Inverse folding.
């Protein structure tokens, strides 16, 4: 685990890194998400067709391309858009192709439009989903679609990501998983449920997807480690309130969307260094340009990304 | 191609799970030491916003004086929130949404004309019941009788309790046998703020009303909790239990959020002889699917807008019947009968779950989705042409039928786990032997 990210880290010599470490961590993420999508389509029979997945992915990429042009970014980088598109394929369900298009456009454009202090506020996929649910669009998210059969394979793939990417910002994932487990076991203890109940709630593919690929988004989490841990605990607490107080579904998605708005405040109270996909840039980043701007040389993957 | 369609809907539940006693999600508490089992139950959940109307049907067939039901409910119920429903309506809903068999008759391969349809009828389901009951005062600490009503043939007590010991004592003092292990489950529901709905049969009322069986109990309440308490039902369970949930909503399909909801395999061609063995087929197929999913899934058997069906296992329910089940948004001025194709803002989801404590540690939690895609568990029989066989095309037709039947046998074996050789034997019919020319005979037509 890396030192406190508040301290600026010295640039690493890319030549000293092994080839796999030089690879952008988003490639690993794309591979895992693609694998999950193929598994979901082929084995778990998700309520999504390959056509719909293609529609979501192509719309996400096209929106990324258009936004790249509109915001004058130097280079079109499809990685984040692909990650967001894949995440939508895994989560978003609707009967209407038009809504799928709208969801992809909102998801990708949100990171260009809704920004604060050089960071986008919401995890794009999270925002796209919650926005459509808030406005009452006929969409839904099926947290039960994963079942428990493939849980451990899923967990291994996620943990593999941590290892491969030497994830410094995985602290938010750890903090969330630990606090969420504490919440579930604490609640079970309080209402005298046996331990298989909280265990069953933790053995959820939806939870893993959220913990490893959504809440961990380095571009939308607080900059300091203390801030991220606080953030993860707050997301857990509010998700618990939604699940056990309001008895609503998808508490973690709602909670993340709401708590994301508190990130600027957390950053102000607990300042830290802003995350950058590429620590070593050959070109200075244009003013006001989103962090999507791609640079030529990348530092070895120090931080683990999340759903773009 | 014009074909005839015969829809044979079988009310298979009665045949498949013919065990004498069963319950809803609660457990039966018997007087004395009478041992009761619960195996299959049916629940209709009408849900819109935070409003829920539950209809609980049971096929209990023990002594009426030994019947009692304890169900955790989210709120204290007033008398007007409790009702006794019609078993016929529930049977109709069951029949309407039941897995179905359709059959097609091949055209004459020599002359294209259609055959005629036949339709099989829905077998009636029989539920037997009786009863008797009485009530005593609560003297147990921490237990409050919130209300006591007689509704139809039922005596109903609404209890709230602060601790499970008191509740258990109350049940024991009132002559119930509380199953071993119920204590902890009751305690958990108490901690979650649930109230308890205890129903017994009032024999006098039942005699006066003239019913020889127990009618479904209905309760209506406001609560954000969209769930079914299963765990009490598992306390005295003797093996896995079956639960059918008929969820009726305004907007779309219902699914479980804490378990996988899996669509049953459907639309397959299966051998003709299954027509006479459909209940057995369905039982084996369902069991195999349950095993395939590690016994951890809830199965979707039907999802359809109530205004129509295709093919219809039974007519859609009328507006009156739906209102009887608690579909409150239809209002009282709606159409009195079913209008084919007419607007009926009711979407039905039929879920089937086989559960036990090990694989279903949690109660079922549901969500309503916006999914209006129709789905039905439908299986197809295709009858070969058995008329005039004089033309040249008949040989080719016979070959395609043989291939089809071979595939049907494999499908059936794969769906049910039945032995392929025995399936082929049962199929018989003279279609199995291969009389077609060898592959090389067809090259040059020598």
């Amino acid at each position: 685990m890396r030192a406190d990210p508040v301290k600026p880290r010295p640039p690493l010599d890319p030549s000293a890194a092994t080839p796999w470490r030089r690879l952008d961590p988003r490639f690993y993420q794309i591979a895992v998400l693609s694998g999950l999508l193929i598994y979901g389509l082929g084995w778990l029979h998700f309520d999504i067709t390959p056509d719909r997945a293609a529609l979501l992915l192509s719309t996400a990429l096209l929106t990324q391309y258009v936004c790249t042009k509109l915001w004058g970014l130097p280079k079109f980088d499809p990685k984040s858009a692909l990650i967001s598109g894949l995440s939508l394929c895994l989560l978003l369900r609707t009967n209407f192709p038009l809504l799928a298009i709208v969801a992809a456009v909102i998801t990708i454009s949100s990171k260009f439009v809704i920004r604060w202090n050089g960071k986008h506020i919401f995890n794009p996929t999270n925002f796209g989903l919650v926005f459509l649910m808030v406005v009452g669009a006929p969409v839904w998210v099926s947290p039960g679609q994963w079942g428990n059969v493939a849980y451990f394979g899923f967990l291994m793939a996620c943990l593999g990501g941590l290892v491969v990417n030497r994830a410094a910002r995985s602290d938010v994932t750890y903090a969330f998983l630990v606090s969420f487990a504490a919440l579930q076991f604490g609640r079970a203890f309080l209402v005298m449920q046996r331990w298989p109940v909280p265990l069953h709630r933790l053995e959820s593919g939806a939870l893993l997807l959220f913990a490893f690929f959504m809440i961990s988004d380095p571009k939308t989490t607080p900059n300091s480690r203390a801030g991220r841990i606080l953030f993860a605990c707050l997301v857990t607490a509010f998700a618990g309130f939604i699940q056990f107080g309001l008895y609503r579904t998808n508490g973690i998605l709602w909670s993340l969307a709401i708590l994301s708005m508190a990130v600027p405040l957390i950053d102000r109270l607990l300042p830290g260094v802003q995350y950058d996909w590429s620590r070593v840039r050959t070109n200075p980043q244009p003013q006001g340009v989103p962090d999507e701007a791609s640079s030529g040389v990348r530092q070895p993957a120090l931080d683990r990304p999340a759903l773009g | 191609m014009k074909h005839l369609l015969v829809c044979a809907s079988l009310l298979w539940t009665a045949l498949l799970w013919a065990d004498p006693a069963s319950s809803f999600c609660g457990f039966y508490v018997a007087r004395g030491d009478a041992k009761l089992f619960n195996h299959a139950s049916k629940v209709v959940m009408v849900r819109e916003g935070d409003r829920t109307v539950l209809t609980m049907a049971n096929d209990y067939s023990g002594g009426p004086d030994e019947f009692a039901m304890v169900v955790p409910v989210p709120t204290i119920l007033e008398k007007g929130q409790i009702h006794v429903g019609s078993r016929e309506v529930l049977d109709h809903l069951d029949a309407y949404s039941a897995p179905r068999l359709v059959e097609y008759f091949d055209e004459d391969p020599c002359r294209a004309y259609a055959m005629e349809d036949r339709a099989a009828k829905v077998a009636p389901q029989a539920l037997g019941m009786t009863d008797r009951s009485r009530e005593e005062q609560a003297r147990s600490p921490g237990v409050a009788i919130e209300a006591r009503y007689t509704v139809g043939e039922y005596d109903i007590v609404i209890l709230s309790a602060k601790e499970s010991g008191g509740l258990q004592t109350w049940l024991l003092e009132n002559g119930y046998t509380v199953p071993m292990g119920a204590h902890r489950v009751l305690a958990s529901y108490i901690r979650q703020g649930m109230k308890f709905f205890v129903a017994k049969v009032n024999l006098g009322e039942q005699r006066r009303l003239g019913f020889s069986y127990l009618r479904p109990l209905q309760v209506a309440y406001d609560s954000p909790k969209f769930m079914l308490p299963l765990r009490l039902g598992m306390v005295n369970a003797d093996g896995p239990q079956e639960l059918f949930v008929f969820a009726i909503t305004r907007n779309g399909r219902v699914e479980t959020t804490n378990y996988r909801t899996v669509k049953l395999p459907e639309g397959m061609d299966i051998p003709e002889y299954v027509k006479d063995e459909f209940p057995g087929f369905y039982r084996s197929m369902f069991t195999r699917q349950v095993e395939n999913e590690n016994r951890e899934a809830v199965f979707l058997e039907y999802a359809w807008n109530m205004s129509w069906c295709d093919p219809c296992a039974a007519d859609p329910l009328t507006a009156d019947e739906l209102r009887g089940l608690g579909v409150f948004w239809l209002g009282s001025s709606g159409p009195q009968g079913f209008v084919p194709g007419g607007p009926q803002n009711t979407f039905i989801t039929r879920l089937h779950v086989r559960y036990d404590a090990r694989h279903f540690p949690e109660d079922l939690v549901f969500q309503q989705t916006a999914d209006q895609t129709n789905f039905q568990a439908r299986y197809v029989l295709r009858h070969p042409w058995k008329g005039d066989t004089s033309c040249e095309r008949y040989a080719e037709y016979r070959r395609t039928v043989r291939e089809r039947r071979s595939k049907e046998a494999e499908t059936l074996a794969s769906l049910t786990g039945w032995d392929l050789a025995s399936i082929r034997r049962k199929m018989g019919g003279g279609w199995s032997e291969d009389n077609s020319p060898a592959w090389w005979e067809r090259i040059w037509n020598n």
In short: The first strand of chain B starts at residue 6 and ends at 9. Residues 6-382 of chain B form one domain. Chain B has two domains: 6-382, 389-444. The radius of gyration of chain B is 25 Å.
